[in-house]
Amino acid sequence: MSKTVTINPATGEKVAEYERISPEEVKKKVAQSNITFNSWKKRSYEERAKLMHKLAEVLDDNREEYAQLATEEMGKTIGQSRKEIEKCAWICRYYADNTSTLLANRTVETEATKSYVTFQPIGVVLAVMPWNFPFYQVIRFAVPALMAGNVGVLKHASNVQGCAIALEGAFAKAGFPEGAFTNLNVSSNLVKEVIENDNIVAVTLTGSDPAGRSVASIAGQNLKKTVMELGGSDAYVILDDADLEEATDLATFGRLQNNGQTCIAAKRFVVLDAIYDEFMGLFAKKMKAAKMGDPTDDDTYYGPMARADLRDELHGQVEKTLSQGGKLVLGGTIPERKGAYYPATILADLEPGMEGFDNELFGPVASVIRAKDEKDAIELANNSQFGLGSGVITGDKERGERVALKLEAGSSFVNKLVVSDPRLPFGGVKNSGYGRELSGYGIREFVNTKTIWIN
């Protein structure tokens, strides 16, 4: 039987090996999940919430262990790994405290004696999850799914299989029944078979555009509901009244957070001509000063990319952009050191048609675009196949709101980097996917929104 091997991206050394399970074991585990669903769905919100609060405690109590594991497997800085675990606990508590309200029956006045809408669980939900937030991405799906009365099975990225096993263990420690949350350590070529399993009723995926198209196609052929959170090339419009110190602080952290590997990271900076040169000078200075290093050191600003092949692919995109006429302001050279490191890089004077403008650069590379005026900036920001997040940096909040409303994205933030928040819906438009996660909108994606009519 094949094994999953995890590699520390900071050192290139093997972390661990994990046995993959066979197709027969997959069927048994999914069947057990369905059996569990038939009892789990009957539990009250209060019973589910009690276990979810316990899961939050498990996450808090094991924060350091889980954070170290995430850093070791995918290279995020240890401080950001700790914050990821803390956010997971917050989501557990949010849904434990609010699901009964979010899924409360909605009375609708009609000519019936009584008519209302109720939200009922649907069954076993499959999640295909990425490596960049190995705990949070999973919790973001699993917690609302389980609080709604569903159960979950996980196909996690192979390079964070230790995190997947730790998550399964956390649910068990919290007292969830066997089959409520199940990790399936399988290769990607078995995903089709899992989706086609009669016990799987829905699929959620966070990942690349090609992966999303493949999974959505298989699910569609089997008439199974999907939610897709795909790539992004988020544009931030820097208006001419912006505080440039604040703007460049946000831009630097936005591009280097999680070592540049975040779907909703600030990736394209559309800067008005009047402040372009000044913005570029400050931005380059701060990006250059950001310390690249060992992700276990607390003073490291950003660490390695998750895998060497991903680093090499990103470098190829940088070189392609330069060959198309882009300007290299900073970085752009693979360092001579162990690990999948890539330096903070700035590509300037980008235009539509260039690789760094049109496609997602999933790493510590910023694309800076010059705009004539506000109208031109909005057009350039919207000139993208993606529409996940977007932002506006301005000294005038009302102006920022007007611009934000015109940006084609699932989220538009003014004077703040886009973040996910359990109280607000999260998702994209265009090639960034469809459906929503989090908030009341997200928890209702995987329920039977059912009409009851009584004469």
Task: Describe this protein with a few key phrases.
alpha/beta; Aldehyde Dehydrogenase, Chain A, domain 2; six-stranded mixed sheet; 455 residues; seven-stranded mixed sheet; 2 domains
Q: Give the helix/strand class.
A: alpha/beta
CATH class of the largest domain: Alpha Beta
Q: Roughly how many Å apart are the termini? A: 59 Å
Largest sheet: 7 strands, mixed
What Rg is obtained from the alpha carbons, in whole angstroms? Answer: 23 Å
CATH topology of the largest domain: Aldehyde Dehydrogenase, Chain A, domain 1
What's the CATH superfamily of the largest domain, by name? Aldehyde Dehydrogenase, Chain A, domain 1
Low-confidence stretches: none
Fraction of residues in β-strands = 15-25%
The gross shape turns out to be globular
Extended strand count: 18
